[in-house]
Amino acid sequence: MPPHEPESTGGGHRNEPTMMNPRVVVYPSPSSNNPPPSNRPCRLRQATTVYPVILKFEEVVYKVKVGQKNEGWGCWGWGTAAAGAREKTILNGMTGMVCPGEMLAMLGPSGSGKTTLLTALGGRLSCKLLSSGKITYNGQPFNSAMKRRTGFVAQDDVLYPHLTVFETLRYTALLRLPRTLSPAEKAAQAEGVMLELGLGRIANSMIGGVRGVRGVSGGERKRVSIGLEMLVDPSLLLLDEPTSGLDSTTAAKILGTLRRMAGEGRRTVVVTIHQPSSRLYHMFDKVLLLSADGSPFYYGRAADALPYFASIGFASSLSVNPADLLLDLANGIAPDSNHSSENGDNFGSTESEKKAVKEELLSAYDRNIATRLKAELCTVDPANYGYNRDVANAAKRVQWSTSWCEQFSVLLKRGLKERRYESFNKLRIFQVLSVAFLGGLLWWKTPPSHIQDRTALIFFFSVFWGFFPLYNAVFTFPQERPMLIKERSSGMYRLSSYFLARTVGDLPMELGLPTAFVIIIYWMGGLKPNPVSFFLSLVIVLYSVLVAQSLGLAMGALLMDVKQATTLASVTTLVFLIAGGYYVQQIPPFIVWLKYLSYSFYCYKLLLGIQFSENDYYECSNGVMCSVVDFPAIKSVGLGHMWVDVCIMGLMLLGYRLVAYLALHHLQSR
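RESULT FIELD:
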């Protein structure tokens, strides 16, 4: 059954057609068991939305440069071409068309460019160095309205492991469904999709899938990924290897669901698949066969593939799975019944024989399919499917399905639910509390006269909570990168709402353990027994935690690689530790500027200013009293200009966060 459609209420506006929530338009259609052949224009099928999508791709060519220095950054012009860099063709002249109600399967060996073509059709192709061709959706280029009407399911399931199945669907519904629906109606839509995909019995089970987090099975995760895209009732649904790693029964269930979705006549479905069974193959309407070097060998009805290849001299005398025969041909292996044997001698074809087979197949494609296909692309009118250009143009002006405040609220709630397990796991709590109690025992009730031990304890405060949050934060954006790219590519929310929700959600998550740490070690260590001094010390430590976390987020967002970010964090913390004003008190003038870049230096200085004043004295030797400002560990940093230090840390906090935001914005624009 289709996803739950809420009834009209009160004012009667809910079921009226809108540019964000178009309604039913029914046309007569042929039986879904008799899909239109590819040698004539697509016939009219039942369409349930004024947003049917006729997907056309014409002569798509995609090339990249290989042998390039710093290739990861060079995709966006930040690297330099190495000597001997060459172009590699990934796709070479792909042409085809998929109509509403059809499911196209793209077959080909590994490395043939199936995923690249699917990504291009979904408007998500990055690092586009050299390409040509045209991809249109109802005759229009890809735009924000089409982005909202497109569902894209990647091969790897990108889901939050600590959310339940229903929570995953509900939060996505709240973000992606139009604002004309109430939260209750969006939740009902999520429940309807969940039941349609047979996920009701695991509704309250965690997704899992990461080490140490048990959850649902691989097939169930794949159905959840499909359900996330079904929520928006997509007109165009693209899936990359939806059956990869699944048993035949589960794979048949998933493809059966997709077949029903396409068979309703309102969705255009495109899948890549490596080697389907015979049962799965016959679920497809059309097939696009890619060779190992990215050239097209066949485009047309799935049922017509074997007769076509037999007509050009590549018939098999055996009853074989059509997909097996097509993949053999894609690799240049001909079904030569006269020379085949039980030992599979035909798989020992020489490279020259394979090349000859490929050339013959490509030549036959140009003679028999290419010319007819180009003519066919010009004969289909999207208006016959209920496409309304005026409504579509109006939809382009509505960039987001929900308001900024709604996005912020949903992302904040989802982030708190997901990260509570990470922030308050037992190992992390034990790590912090054990260090706090051990430090409290080592500095147990330090007398005021032991100024060396007291300054050492204060420096320990600044170092531990200057570096511990930094190392935790560098993992944040590299780990969330796949999810961020996936959701932002779907137009789910603004980057600003995500970033601010992440920042606000971190406050209770990241400040709880430092607070417990300070409460324990401050009183055990015998620091100034004054509630005001304690409160100010706690505020400064939490302030330092936020600055350190900001630097870690900036490093992670800039590098987007855990190993590189961790290495940079190690070097940075080492420099800040040495130049923090405690270990080296007479830094050479030409490098003294390093300590002013260290937030640990300012934290240490502020904590000293809370515990000591310029009028305090200590016993320096044999009853001689000395001013605390002359104590070396205090003299090297001083006790003045406290508000200046607070402002400098504030600038660091905002500056690092701004760098992280701009880095994420650049990541999305690649």
